[in-house]
Amino acid sequence: MIKRLGTAAFAASFAIAAWTGAATAGEVLDRVQRTKTLTVAVGTDWGAGSHLDESHEFVGYDVTIAKQIAASLGVEVKFVTPSWDLIAAGNWDGRWDVAMGQMTPTKERAEKLDFPATYIWGPTSAVIHKDSKATKPSDLEGKVVGVTSGVTGEAYANHNLAPAWLNADPITYQFKPGKVKTYGTSNVAFDDLRLGDGVRLDAVIADTSIALDAIKAGYPLRVLEPALFNSPGDIAIQRGDKEFSDKIAAAVKQMKDDGTLSRLSMKWYGVDYSKEQ
Amino acid sequence: MTAINISQPEGGLDGGSPSGIGNVLHVQPLSSQESFSQQQVPMSADKIIEATNVSKWYGTFRALTDVNLTVRKGERIVICGPSGSGKSTLIRCFNRLEAHQEGEITVNGIRLHNKMRNVTEVRKNVGMVFQHFNLFPHMTVLMNCMAGPMWIKDVPEAEAKKTALKFLKRVRIPEQANKYPVQLSGGQQQRVAIARSLCMEPAVMLFDEPTSALDPEMVSEVLETMTSLARDGMTMVCVTHEMGFARAVADRVIFMDLGRIVEEGKPNDFFTNPQHDRTKLFLSQILRH
Amino acid sequence: MLYQDTVESEVLVHKPWFIAAMFAVVLAVFLMVNLTGTTFGELMRPVIGAPMQSGIYGRVAIAFVIAVMFCVNIVLIGFAPLKAQIGIVWIELLALFFSFFKAFNLSMPFIWENLPYLITQGVVTTIYVSAVSLICASLIAIIAAIAKLSSNGFAYAIANFYTSFFRGLPLLMQIYLIYLGLPQLGIVIDAVPSGILALSLCVGAYMTEIFRAGIQSIDRGQWEASRSMGFGFGLTMRRIILPQALPVIIPPMGNTFISMLKDSSLVSVLGVWELTFLARTLGQPTFHHMEMLITASLIYWIMSACLEVGQSRLERHFGRSKVR
After folding, report:
1. C225, C250, C273, C303 — which has fewest CB within 10 A?
2. Is there a single domain that holds both residue A160 and residue A218?
3. For the whole model, what pTM was predicted?
């Protein structure tokens, strides 16, 4: 689950500096219906959410949901893979209509993007080497902790995570790291952690689902219970097209109500993340 | 080969001095120059180059001062003088490699000036041979000769090749046609450069110290080529220190110093009876050894 | 080659002081790292006993053996003729390099499974983007170089600004500028053309300087000879100056192309599925990212090597008029 708060300052500054404002009402929906194509931004390396299978086709939780939304609109789906920075910067210029990616809706982002529907609630955990003596998050007080840059985990480690989503609980910080090391991707942080307990890192703060994947792939790691916090992952669209937003919201609500989301979550994550925990 | 064969076999310097003077000793006795040139150049002949009151500056340095010179068709002129006297500058003005600031230069009836649009017309008709040959090193000898006619005069390739071979034969190196310039000796390169200019069939040939960069034993082969061109009636303006060549070939010898024409005259008068002290000094220095 | 003296000097690697020095250095280096737990330690088992328990004795013994092997190796290579020396050293370095990669414990089946896709999708896109950029960059560079050498103040200023701007800005910024900035002017271009445009402009700026230096290296006499034949500017440039400048231009241009081949990976931020994009993302979900990154590195290396070969071929081709 990718829940980046900040984006590369550069990409964002462009979008803000020359921000042309929102799409006019119905513009995106018109385009989608005219071209009979819903262009969706996904990633090839977003874990169980979206990745390529053996025949290099897109599969995953996000991908399946995007396909269903397109089906409910009665159009074809087309996937593009811009970098996260470009997605989060907003100002898409019609290059794609919808971004999956389980984006955490924050106040800053809400100025550029609309978030029609939450489709996942994911936990973030502290991950440690299996030889570590830590048994609960508070044991990590003063330790060296790795995080991925720009995501909610980094904000948690630095004690500046300000939840901006609806009905958000205030965050309680269970430990203060002695030193925070920032990585480009969580995989590299895991690579450093696997070298041994305390060799480079004592722990990594990451999405629980990715940590579980790493353990499944043979990484000698352990997830510390309980999870540090939960946060929602939303579908993002360009700001201002209310009709389009409503259509997406309706499609997701339908999937939520008929149990499709739960089923998909069980399939891809082995856990039902589709409901708020 | 020319009608009057003035050349001797290459290397046939019969033990003479390898200096410039020595080289021309064997071209000198071949004909009576005075009568020959007077017959060839009646004073009424067309003016090919006419320079009146030409002055040129490099910044504040005055390179040419009020130069007047007329070159008629068929005329052979040798310009000499100490280094820095402006003789190269003068002939480089004739095809506008250099710009003059005052006076008028007319070449083949076309006046040279800053804004002229037909400079190619002038350059097509004015061949130039440089001290350092300036052959195009990335082309074969043959291509060096063919390039001008093909690219400027739109001559078909086959015909350009025929012309090129004709003139390479004329300068006696047809067998080097497919070599690159670096593979030739200095003398051979300079003869290719002459052939290259001839291929454009120019109205006048300018020679800018063509033998100064050559090893002594190669000077004669270039001078022979030039002499034979002169015999064929080519209009020539040569900047050279080869006094033997001047004596044998020139209709007029011009002596320049400090950007001015100091003295000019028929070779016999010029060499035997120079008028100005500066000319006398120059000749005594250059002919001493 | 350096300009060699005709007097042969003594072979350096056969001088006792040099061998002794190398021995000392290698011994010191390997004393600092503990290799007892590695395959090499296992090989030494008959001498040092159980590798993990051998302690300082095991370390010294291993370092000593490696130092001896190294010195014997360089002394032996010193006897070989030049060509063989080059070959042997290359092979040895390559073998070391691969044994280093082996230490990553890579999953070969994963590599083989994804290699065809890496090539058909990634390499093809990389080559396509690089090749188109290369052609555009060359055209831009020739024009800009001429503008920079011209006496037209307007053209000079534009060309000068261009090279300064595009050499001064990081390529990544240029890519963002074109991808995100141009739409503000109403020009929305896709990821691949954006990437090609950015690469062309950036590489073109570097090549402008290469072309300028190449053109300036040509003797004035060539201009004069060409002019005296009546050739105009275009003809002189095309047929006389540029062909002669090429041999000067090609070595630095080969350099630029090789670095561009790798810089083309920056367009992956726009979601272009070129080699680096796939290398970064294909292995991520299954935690096989090192496999993909190393494979992609080797592919880049091979492509660079091909460019190097092409460069030396071209150099030889254009050097033919210099052979006496």
Report:
1. C303
2. yes
3. 0.77
